[in-house]
Design brief:
The structure is a single chain. With about 575 residues, this protein is an alpha/beta fold. It has 3 domains: about 300 residues, ABC transporter type 1, transmembrane domain (ABC transporter transmembrane region fold, Up-down Bundle), CATH 1.20.1560; about 170 residues, P-loop containing nucleotide triphosphate hydrolases (Rossmann fold), CATH 3.40.50; about 80 residues, Rossmann fold (3-Layer(aba) Sandwich). Strands 6-11-12-3-13-14 form a 6-stranded mixed beta sheet.
Length: about 575
Amino acid sequence: MQKLFSYLRSYRKECVLGPLLKLAEATLELFIPMIVASVIDRGVGGGDKGHIIRMSLVLVALGLLGLGFSVTAQYFSARAAVGFVTKLRHALFAHIQRFPYATLDRVGIPTLITRMSSDMNQVQTGLNLTLRLLLRSPFVVFGAMIMAFTIDATAALWFVAAIPVLAVVVFGVMLLTMPMYKRVQERLDRVLGTTRENLNGVRVLRAFRKEQDECGRFEHQNMELTAAQQRVGKVSALMNPATYVIVNLAVIGLIRTGAIRVQAGILTQGAVVALYNYMSQILVELIKLANLIINITKSLACGKRIQSVLDIQDEEQVQSGLPGGDPSVRVEFDDTAIAYGGSAGEALSGVSLRALPGQVTGVIGGTGSGKTTLVNLIPRFYEATRGRVLVDGVDVRAWEPAALRAKIGLVPQKATLFRGSIRENLLWGCRDGTLPSASSAEDRPIQDKDLMEAVEAAQAADVVAAKGGLEGEIEQFGRNLSGGQRQRLTIARALVRKPEILILDDSASALDLATDAALRRAIRALPYKPTVFLVSQRTAAVRHADQIIVLDEGRVVGLGTHDRLLETCPVYREIHESQFRKEAAV
């Protein structure tokens, strides 16, 4: 937890002033029973109305002063709690952004969402309550006991007997509930994961009429969460009645002792009322302390979950001293293999391939053959478990991730756009708004001409025109666009930055044959001649590539041109013939 508390250093002043002001308020509260005892004994008992008025004004003054201390303490506590969690959330988000795909797959997106939302909110609540009550409640408990001894030592022994028993109950419940709250959060992760899956795949669920099955799965997981919360709730619920019973038994003993000593003339009636008030203060504060401990228990469990994510080491470390390759080769795979975490075997193995500057490499194979896995190794989204991947003769593990990915324009299988204008989406690859200048050492600002060149190359000029130009609005995930329109805009987004390496991962699957052919011609005609990796399941899309790599179940079964593969590669020939027979039948 030390890593978490490091984000609290900026709020040292608030963390000191908040508790101190609450202690000041508690100190004033401890004087109130003594003033009430004085009113009863001297004012009421002695018939001194002036004393009653004076003490009443003192009580009002103490109340107003205590209110000021309390509000100010709340301000400092809230400022520290909110500021701490804000910094922590930013740090956690930035840390997650550095995770490679393998780590995201292992940890799980629903778990990370829970850490960023529910766990953070619980930590914020716990810190706020801790700053306000963690010192105040014990201070009042022990302060009330000390004040009771100043009134009558014999009667105050009931305080000495009650407080240890109460402490055993409170801390016993805390120790029991801490692991239980952790299990509750784990079940909450499952519920959130199922909810996310259903929302993302709602169209598929409806298409296959799986709504009832998913409702049943969600209900089952929700029942598990409910059962876990009920179990921890039952244990936590024991705290309040147990503390009430103990304190009220102590009150009964205190009143009995006080009555005997009043009758003997040792105590006054006001002193007995003061002792009762101190016992009541202890009861209230212990209930607050019990609820505080429950919240602290939840917050500690949530804090450890956040800490566990922060403790995950960034796997994209730059490694120096790695052997290089031929710098004239843009991308090289040298006997490359990769196995996903938890898998029994390698998803891709024995890949050796060279792609020269300006060369177009087609990647083809059946579903699950490893096409996307292959191209994801180039920007080091996943790391090769055997062999090497080199860019410009340098192992990708020796590149700074940002510098490596600045060379690459990637269009993934799923065309994802973001809420905003077309211009904002196109500029995603150039966050500083500049492009390298061919005639100058300094970068130049991106102009509308650059954006439109990328749009036209991606065959998306009609999409931009239909939306009213570059300022046309796009809804979240591009919901106001068709599948083909989304794909063309994502291709344009990758072309804006004029990448040295362009990866098109089956990104034209929604385009008609004519548009697809025009897109491929436009990419070949790009003046900056990028090295292109064209992933597709259609031989028509890759037939004009300079070289084609054929994958089958993670292994390379063919490498060459279209005509050569038709002669030498049965897998490629089978794919080609199946598609062209289908087209002929149509």
